[in-house]
Amino acid sequence: LRGLGGEGECEVRVLAGRILAMVPETVSHADVAERLSRVFGVSNFAFCWQAPHDMEAIKSVVSQALQGRQFGSFRIAARRAFKQLPFGSREMNYAIGSHVMETHDTTVSLNHPELTVHVELIPRQTLVYLDKLPGAGGLPNGVSGRLTALLSGGLDSPVAAHRMMKRGCRVDFVHFHSYPFLDRTSQDKAQTLARLLTRYQYHATLFLVPFGEIQQHIIGVAPPPDRVVLY
Fold this sequence. Notes:
InterPro entries: Rossmann-like_a/b/a_fold, ThiI_AANH, THUMP_dom, THUMP_ThiI, tRNA_sulfurtransferase_ThiI. The chain is of the alpha/beta class.
């Protein structure tokens, strides 16, 4: 969860099929969403309310989560990753759904609801959330090894690097430049592209390789038709 870095400490717990991050209150939801939306390996994420393993407390938190929301239909999606409780998912769906019906002018729609209330029971607490936000998808950074991508300054190379990042590769970058025979434009462009791409993996190295003298030597010894190949 380096996507949350730079905004204060956060407690991270690995659950079954989930990662729970306790983010400081000083961090805005918009900033967290923007960062997590570009973390490869994250399918989706949600902002949760917490409640103890108590049905009345869960109902209260659901009411808090629904405050200010307008919805014509809804359904409850209860999931028990923690089974050591006196009530099951079906009982939770019925009890919480009845509570929402009593407190809101709405109807139940199991197949096409306007709003789904997710209730997940995990060890030590219950999580309630409404909206699943899309993540970047793909594979987590680094699980497919490490590679180096050539940044030529065009469009194809950064697109290829981004696609390999999404497939789980840790990507560093290399750019060949002709400075001081030419200005620094190509270097500046490569640095800009590397900064943009690094936002999706949060650390990378850009190698700037001076190639001007080698090009001059090739011009002096090679016929024009062969120079592009030798470059």
